[in-house]
Amino acid sequence: MIIHSLTFYMFAAVAVASGVMVISARNPVHSVLFLILAFFNSAALFVLMGAEFLAMVLVVVYVGAVAVLFLFVVMMLDINFREMRHGALQYLPIGGLVGIVLLAELVLVFGSWAVAPEAADVATIPTPDPTVVTNTHALGSVLYTRFVYLFQAAGMILLVAMVGAIVLTLRQRDGLRRQSIAEQNARRKSDTIEVVKVPSRGGV
Amino acid sequence: MNPMPASEAMVFSPAVPEIFLACAAMALLMIGVFRRSDESRTLSTLSVATLAIAFVLVVIFGREPARAFEGLFIVDQFAVFMKALVLIGSASAIVLAVRFNANEGLDRFEYPVIVVLATLGMMMMISANDFIALYLGLELQSLSLYVLAAFRRDSVRSTEAGLKYFVLGALSSGLLLYGASLIYGFAGSTGFDALARVLAAGAPESTWIGVVFGLVFVSAGLAFKVSAVPFHMWTPDVYEGAPTPVTAFFAVAPKVAAVALFLRVLTGPFGPLVADWQQVIVVISVGSMLIGAFAAIVQTNIKRLMAYSSIGHVGYAFVGLAAGTEAGVRGVLIYMAIYLFMNLGTFACILCMRQNGRMVEDIEDLAGLSKTHPMVAAAMGTFMFSMAGIPPLAGFFGKVYVFLPAIEAGLVTLAVIGVLTSVVSCFYYLRIVKIMYFDEVVEPFDRPIGREVGAILWATGLVILLFIVYPAPILAPATTAAASLFGG
Q1: What's the pLDDT tens digit per position in B432-458?
Q2: How far away is chain B from the Cα of A162, in angstroms, using its nearest Cα?
Q3: What ranges do the domains of chain B cover?
Q4: Which one of A142, A167, A171, A178 would you mutate to disrupt binding with B, by most B Cβ within 10 Å of its Cβ?
Q5: By three-state DSSP, how is residue B67 classified?
Q6: Chain A partners within 8 Å of B170 (Cβ)
């Protein structure tokens, strides 16, 4: 048990520390790298809780896609981060005040948290025993059956996102040379190569 | 063993209109891509036909109240009424855009397709019976709207509108999700039926601070979507920056859908907590009416004016919701229906504001419209009188149907504020009439105004005028719809 707690505190501490580093690092590339570290530690926390599927998804989606995308953006776009950070200090007091008020409110709410007595009865699906059924299997068995509507709806949202990205960014430019495979394949030797008899010292 | 009864397991027939719309949208997308032509008239026609078929399907499959997909999806008379309004609004937005897009160099086939996808999202919102289904419908709608707002991508104002809408919309979605997670943490379910059971079981006077907290967050997230005060800041900028037909779309369909969400969430699962949400709705309503009335006075751009006007109208509609009774909800439904037609008509008039081939948006440009375009001026005048709530036009009855239930529910102060602010709002509506009829022509608008715009103008004008003599087509369905929401 003590090893479990020790691992938890290690991962949690590293996650929090790297979170702080994300916003305080001078170099934006370092920020993104710390973000990746934070994701890995959070994934480890999920594993400790027995939610291995969430851990995998966190690494695959957030580290594999999102963070790498951030890295590309940071490296490829010439954004002056010093300029963006300029003036952040000036908003610190009011931002901090709002944060403290919100924190106090949340503490009040969660201090007197109560769960409805009927809550356990209305849970849509009972959680299967994690020692018998793995997370992935349990999620998969409901995601494509009971929640197929939500799954399809999420698919439609992704479709809209894709169409939207194309609409807003794709431009038809003139003067582009496009590949036409049919034309390429239909080309014959006689169309392109001409055998010329070059007389000596005559040139073409 | 399957814990659910087999009869409920794979029911999807109530969702046939949505399934049809989803498949049709993808088919339209394919047609658009493979036609290799940017000309969008054909696709616009097909999209309007799709929406018309969806309308018929909604009516056919909505006769009996039913649940589908294991209770995630609900169809009742309320859903049918709201979906009908949304479909009318979306189809009109496509029709209004045909000529505008061709003239402004925005003739791209994606426009009608994205409107159809947004409509699908709105219909999913209206039929949502679960917080997750609600959220997914809302996101499908919002994502389409962000793209539409930035549709004129070469214009700084349009892209700014899209970006602003996106950032604030994402924030509001975050608030909504946070609220929903708090409610889930309290009640153990996201389904509205289960929530209603759990919340009804507890006594209303108990101090469930968590669920009230969640309710406030959910209300805040939804208030963003209907642009109610104090979450209205994005509205004028987005309405002004977006292309005009898109603004017309924003002003009607998404607002109707989001008001439907408000009604379903507050009267359904949170019906037992009416005392808790009533005060929130009263504050939102008073704020919206005040901002809508006073901030619109100083506007010079007609689209900004319409933005503040729509904020004010949400405030009036919420007077009925604040009553929390069946009559109040009926009033909201009638109000939204009339609001839809008034706004579509007004935006059709705004689309006529074209001088020498380019759009103008200043209120002063309307000067002397009655001499150059008497019919357009007459229609615009009708819509303005109706919005101001002058009897005997439809807008007056809309206000009557929301104010009376509020008075019956004891919210006299709220109703008085409503009447007073609508007197203030008369100023800017009637100023437009004054400019059209009594000012001298500076530069006449182009002719002809276009068949599509003219048709919308006639149709909406007739609805507003005929409501006085024959209100049954709106009143009767609204009554059954409100009854269905209260377990009738």
Answers
A1: 999 999 988 888 888 888 888 999 999
A2: 10
A3: 273-488
A4: A167
A5: strand
A6: none
